[in-house]
Amino acid sequence: MTDFLSTGTLPEHYRDLALTVRDFANQVVAPVAAKHDAEHSFPYEVVAGMARMGLFGLPFPEEYGGMGGDYFALCLALEELGKIDQSVAITLEAGVSLGAMPIYRFGDEKQKQEWLPRLASGQNLGAFGLTEAGAGSDAGGTRTTAAEDGDSWVINGNKQFITNSGTDITALITVTAVTGQVGGKKEISTILVPADTSGFTAEPAYNKVGWNASDTHPLTFTDVRVPKENLLGERGRGYANFLRILDEGRIAIAALSVGAAQGCVDECVRYAGEREAFGKTIGSNQAIAFKIARMEARAHTARTAYYDAAALMLSGKPFKKQASIAKLVASEAAMDNSRDATQIFGGYGFMNEYPVARHYRDSKILEIGEGTTEVQLMLIGRELGL
Ligand SMILES: Cc1cc2nc3c(=O)[nH]c(=O)nc-3n(C[C@H](O)[C@H](O)[C@H](O)COP(=O)(O)OP(=O)(O)OC[C@H]3O[C@@H](n4cnc5c(N)ncnc54)[C@H](O)[C@@H]3O)c2cc1C
């Protein structure tokens, strides 16, 4: 089978990175993926391995402890990890694009020096708390407040569904909070909350349909007091800054989704060539071959969509529409491919320990997190002037 990395499309340094992460995913992640999924346990040993490889620092400059790479390098790593284990991939995606990137993009020099080396090394994880019970797609519904009190912000409220927020190595939660009213509208700002701050609680983890080995909690903030200097970026720009972070994050989620879609193809090509029914391999039936061909086409077109969005972003051009298109088609490719793969595996596809069954459970959230399918359609429509 011709693999995309062997087509020569990518410059050598990107291809070498992807192949290195692929080896790691096959040798270190794959053997423990089913166990962590079944036990709903956070894969600390895998995360430590990714940290040693420098994956958490991929898009950050060396002066902040990063690898001096770029966002596309991160995407390639996410695609390779996403093929094998989406929980591991989302831990990296959220750690970098939601945990560390807001500080790199909007932090002052002191905040960058304090937090980025820890987050880029993977020694610690950062989380981003935007979503609340009444603020998901409509993030403007934020109710959490941050009141000024002398030299401090005092934060009260709740966040929900926050990734990487309750692990033993979580060091920081960045939260959006209402800091006042401007022209009758909420002023939303972003504030850094160290995880050991009194009054902050990561409540017991959710029991999810998938992404079982990734860490997701509701959070409670009760009179959480942090210094005024923990404001991240300009006061009142919290919402706008977060939208920029989400635009980038959509390319990363698309890459992860392409990994899932391709992982399903790879599993099916192997299985359909081995499994026999009616005296021949099931793959020799055109009905199965066509299904797998369509799966390959979905993965490939979704990959070109995220490559395109990443190329625009890295060259400093507008990329909002392309990022939404990539997220839309890649998450749908992952969901469609995992459903088809489960069908091709027959009864085995319904057994939790099989990778395609895990992809089937894991892929649904790709159409929901970091902007639902409907939100992507809204954004694309807006870019078209509708
Ligand atoms: C496992 C997991 C991890 C997550 N990690 C994080 C995290 O780290 N940080 C964080 O802040 N959040 C996180 N989230 C939250 C996630 O981003 C939200 O769940 C998502 O944005 C959707 O918001 P909601 O759940 O409130 O759904 P809602 O916004 O209530 O949407 C419900 C449904 O209505 C649709 N809808 C809403 N408005 C419209 C409209 N105008 N037109 C058409 N349809 C519409 C939506 O598309 C959706 O289908 C996570 C969620 C999960 C499940």
UniProtKB/TrEMBL annotation:
- Family annotation (PROSITE patterns): ACYL_COA_DH_1 (PS00072), ACYL_COA_DH_2 (PS00073)
Domain Acyl-CoA dehydrogenase/oxidase N-terminal as annotated: residue spans: 12-123
- Acyl-CoA oxidase/dehydrogenase middle domain residues are 127-224
Q: Which UniProt keywords apply?
A: FAD, Flavoprotein, Oxidoreductase
Report the Pfam families cross-referenced here: Acyl-CoA_dh_1, Acyl-CoA_dh_M, Acyl-CoA_dh_N
Task: Please report the stretch or stretches of sequence annotated as the Acyl-CoA dehydrogenase/oxidase C-terminal domain.
Answer: 236-384
Gene3D superfamilies hit by this protein: Acyl-CoA dehydrogenase/oxidase, N-terminal domain (1.10.540.10), Butyryl-CoA Dehydrogenase, subunit A, domain 2 (2.40.110.10), Butyryl-CoA Dehydrogenase, subunit A, domain 3 (1.20.140.10)
Q: What is this protein called?
A: Acyl-CoA dehydrogenase
Q: Which organism is it from?
A: Nocardia jinanensis
